[in-house]
Design goal:
Elements (H helix, E strand, L loop, with lengths): L5 E6 L6 H12 L3 E3 L34 H14 L1 E8 L4 E9 L5 E5 L4 H10 L2 E7 L3 H14 L5 H24 L3 E3 L1 H12 L7
Parallel strand pairs: 1-5, 1-6, 2-5, 6-7
Antiparallel strand pairs: 3-4
Length: 210
């Protein structure tokens, strides 16, 4: 039974390595990943927050938590912990909308990762509910994060190139604030390598055989 599973929350700036760490944990321990960014709202939903300054002013501010469905994400996370499976959205960032749903099953795992740029928004609620195994804010040098984010977003055609460049510059400037916010809710600030090493030390010899 997966009932009683607990979550490792991976927060941090876009491009910092959250997905990479989640993939490493999946490969080492068989822990599935709940992609919190799939809980974005559709781009045509009324009342989404907009960018108010700079060259991207007037566009939807996808780095604002108001573009993200907090309650849906938290409900899915709680259901995973309680029952071991849940229905999650499939989200197209390039189209700014949900394109379907899929079933996420823990397959008997007692841990799973939940990663996304708004992961800090659920840390305190998970802690109060007793389902938080650990919370990390994954960071790299702002230049490394900027380059990783930009190359990924261009490769995946997430938004028009100039929008991505301008967004990347704005996020690089905001990185310290993002990290401070995560630290304030109790996230351990670390690189992906450091976080993996700490989790490995805690789990001991429970890694999957190669």
């Amino acid at each position: 039974m997966s009932a009683g599973a607990r979550v490792i929350v991976l927060a941090g700036p876009s491009g910092s390595g959250k997905s990479r760490l989640a993939a490493r944990l999946a490969a080492a321990y068989g822990w599935p990943t709940l992609r919190l960014d799939d809980f974005y709202r559709d781009g045509d939903e009324p009342g989404l927050p907009l960018i108010t300054e700079g060259a991207n002013a007037g566009l939807v501010d996808w780095d604002h938590p108001g573009t993200w469905d907090h309650e849906d994400a938290l409900a899915a996370l709680r259901e995973l912990c309680a029952t071991g499976s849940t229905e999650v959205p499939v989200y197209s960032i390039s189209e700014s909308r949900r394109t379907g749903t899929q079933r996420l099953d823990l397959g008997g795992a007692s841990r799973f990762s939940a990663e996304g740029i708004f992961a800090t928004e659920i840390v305190e609620e998970c802690r109060r509910a007793g389902i938080l195994a650990a919370a990390y804010c994954i960071t790299q040098h702002p230049v490394v994060t900027f380059w990783r984010r930009l190359t990924r977003d261009l490769r995946e055609h997430r938004k028009p190139p100039m929008v991505l460049v301008r967004r990347g510059i704005a996020l690089a400037r905001a990185q310290r604030q993002i990290v401070r916010r995560a630290s304030a809710v109790g996230c351990r600030v670390a690189t992906g390598d450091r976080a993996f090493a700490e989790i490995r030390d805690q789990e001991g010899d429970h890694a999957l055989a190669p």
